[in-house]
Design brief:
Layout lengths: L6 E7 L2 E6 L2 E5 L30 E3 L10 H4 L8 E3 L4 H5 L6 E3 L5 E4 L2 E6 L18 E8 L2 E7 L8 H8 L4 E5 L15 H11 L3 E5 L13 H12 L13 E5 L1
Parallel strand pairs: 3-4, 4-5, 5-6, 10-11, 11-12
Antiparallel strand pairs: 1-2, 1-13, 2-3, 7-8, 8-9, 9-10
Length: 259
């Protein structure tokens, strides 16, 4: 449980973050296994998940269908009653994960999940889950939480490239925290669908979020840039642009109180 008014953020790794605000708790893109899809890349760091951290998770949000974001084994580790909010065409895959309850919403659609207001927001990415699922379903989420008369708004970008959508989201919501991806940008063709660190800082300014927590780095080796480059590059550009006070860098497994 987080102190009144503060949000406890635990960066589990990749795009997986556990968020606690008062008694509220949710998780983003749960990926809690040693390998992606059993035969994919192996986790480079320990899971760093304390015993009991998944207890009382009320719901999860899953941004898209790629195996490193929608992991059926990880969904089965969540409390049985915790629903998963996802793009409508992915609800069947989620439901086949231990018969997990799936809530399908699209861009700018909203669902009330145990008192939390969850809105699907646009993202520029791509989605495929071979051999059977090839639809282009991908999005981010804005989660509005209220506890004890205090409100906090969290944006989970999931996985995405640069687009005008960040500005649109910033106009609609007053964001306290933004989880923005910073890795998998090399070779250069990857940057079309993934933010480089300097792109993430652009997205931070476009959304107007008070604090950015970088995600999608330091967990699996999925691209060509040096494994430890994304956070170094992020902090370098943040200092040059006077944004270092708005960046909260967490190592995989690390928690922090924000707000």
């Amino acid at each position: 449980m987080s102190p009144s008014g503060a949000v406890r953020v635990t960066y589990v790794g990749h795009a997986t973050v556990i968020v606690e605000f008062g008694k509220r708790k949710f998780i983003t893109d749960p990926l809690l296994t040693k390998r992606i899809a059993r035969i994919g890349p192996k986790r480079k760091v320990g899971l760093g998940l304390d015993a009991g951290m998944l207890e009382n998770v009320e719901f999860a949000v899953v941004s898209h269908g790629h195996f490193d974001h929608l992991d059926k084994r990880s969904l089965c580790m969540l409390p049985p009653a915790a629903p998963v909010v996802v793009c409508p065409k992915l609800t069947g895959i989620v439901h086949r994960s231990c018969r997990r309850t799936a809530v399908g919403i699209g861009w700018w659609e909203t669902a009330d999940i145990n008192g939390a207001r969850v809105t699907g927001v646009p993202a520029y990415h791509f989605s495929a889950r071979p051999p059977f699922h090839w639809s282009g379903d991908y999005q981010g989420f804005v989660i509005e939480l209220e506890e004890g008369g205090k409100k906090r708004t969290v944006y989970h970008a999931g996985d995405c490239g640069m687009s005008e959508y960040f500005g649109q989201i910033g106009k609609k919501f007053k964001l306290d925290i933004a989880f923005l991806p910073i890795g998998a940008y090399d070779p250069p063709s990857f940057r079309k669908h993934h933010l480089a660190p300097e792109d993430a800082l652009d997205a931070l300014e476009m959304t107007g979020a008070q604090t950015m927590v970088p995600i999608h780095w330091g967990t699996y080796n999925l691209s060509w840039e040096p494994f430890d480059e994304p956070p170094r590059r992020l902090l370098e550009f943040a200092r040059k642009r006077g944004l270092e006070d708005r960046v909260r860098l967490l190592q995989p497994g690390e928690s922090a109180m924000i707000g």
